[in-house]
Amino acid sequence: MNVVFLHPDLGIGGAERLVVDAALALKSKGHLVRFVTNHHDRSHCFPETRDGTVGVTVVGEWFPRSVLGKCQALCAYLRMMLAAFYLVWFSGIKCDVIFVDQISVCIPILRMGTRAKIVFYCHFPDQLLSAGRENLIKSLYRAPLDFLEEVTTGMAHRILVNSQFTAALEALVPGEWDHLKLVIAGGYDSRVEENVSHYKELVELSKKLGIEDKMLFLQSPSELTKIALIRTCTALIYTPENEHFGIVPLEAMYLGAPVVAMDSGGPKETVVDGVTGFLTPPGDAGAVAKAMSGLLTNNDHHRMGAMGREWVKDKFSFKNFSDALNSLVATDE
């Protein structure tokens, strides 16, 4: 079958790793798979999308991501609608199944222009992740977007659901942590103002707390470096709040590292509290420190790491993932 993944920004984040793995899983079952996306930087992407393992077509990159730094969600919706228009009326790409990732507003366009099965991949509803609803202007801005998300999500044939670094820094105070080092590693895109400003903020905070000698910042590490870091770490601290899904905790557990994550979003489904790691209140540096102290004091990181690996192999293996996706694609409505 011809399978197309419609994705807003094919970078190197956790959501992108998950959707690329989904594409590889379907390709391993003999399906023809490609991406249509609003952005794909060959110097800032996963190797499978760069080396031709899966084809990538970029559409609508010229459309702005924001208006004077605002309205990012609205612009993302419009960019995905442009990609959908291109896919069904101008691309000539044959589609039997279309996976729509993250943004559902383009689904009506796909339903009008193609008979393909539409699968919406909802990591976590966007309206549940958007903060600042107490602000009247923000509430008025979000109201039509939330309505569109609710209505268009239900138009898919099938729905798949995966229902701050600052905390980590503040937990690393002098004393019991003297023998440890904190490595902060992740995707870094100089085009994204938030990435640039947050990196500077973290560097300044480490100096303010007097722990710069215990810090190592790695921007966009390679896959080999990332694997080496996780394999040799005591634990992985995963601080994003209300993350859609978060592939990083799964990667860490598979490699034998326990995970300390926020008790919100994706990690609530992937991390078993007290078994494969710990879930802590979002933004609570003290809770993160307590969890890490428990891992070290009781020498639990080896036991939890081993249990985490078995948990991922049992529930999230590539074979199970491939079989489930293939079954979904092959099943007629």
UniProtKB/TrEMBL annotation:
Its main location: endoplasmic reticulum. GO terms for cellular component: endoplasmic reticulum membrane. It is a single-pass membrane protein. One of its GO terms (molecular function) is GDP-Man:Man(2)GlcNAc(2)-PP-Dol alpha-1,6-mannosyltransferase activity. It comes from the Eukaryota. Its EC number is 2.4.1.132, 2.4.1.257. InterPro entries: ALG2, Glyco_trans_1, Glyco_trans_4-like_N. It catalyses: a beta-D-Man-(1->4)-beta-D-GlcNAc-(1->4)-alpha-D-GlcNAc-diphospho-di-trans,poly-cis-dolichol + GDP-alpha-D-mannose = an alpha-D-Man-(1->3)-beta-D-Man-(1->4)-beta-D-GlcNAc-(1->4)-alpha-D-GlcNAc-diphospho-di-trans,poly-cis-dolichol + GDP + H(+); an alpha-D-Man-(1->3)-beta-D-Man-(1->4)-beta-D-GlcNAc-(1->4)-alpha-D-GlcNAc-diphospho-di-trans,poly-cis-dolichol + GDP-alpha-D-mannose = an alpha-D-Man-(1->3)-[alpha-D-Man-(1->6)]-beta-D-Man-(1->4)-beta-D-GlcNAc-(1->4)-alpha-D-GlcNAc-diphospho-di-trans,poly-cis-dolichol + GDP + H(+). Residues 176-310 form the Glycosyl transferase family domain. The keyword DNA-binding does not apply. Pathway: Protein modification; protein glycosylation. SUPFAM superfamilies: UDP-Glycosyltransferase/glycogen phosphorylase. Keywords: Endoplasmic reticulum, Glycosyltransferase, Membrane, Transferase, Transmembrane, Transmembrane helix. Residues 12-168 form the Glycosyltransferase subfamily 4-like N-terminal domain. It is found in: Endoplasmic reticulum membrane. Belongs to the glycosyltransferase group 1 family. Mannosylates Man(2)GlcNAc(2)-dolichol diphosphate and Man(1)GlcNAc(2)-dolichol diphosphate to form Man(3)GlcNAc(2)-dolichol diphosphate. PANTHER family: ALPHA-1,3/1,6-MANNOSYLTRANSFERASE ALG2, ALPHA-1,3_1,6-MANNOSYLTRANSFERASE ALG2. This is Alpha-1,3/1,6-mannosyltransferase ALG2. It comes from Notodromas monacha.
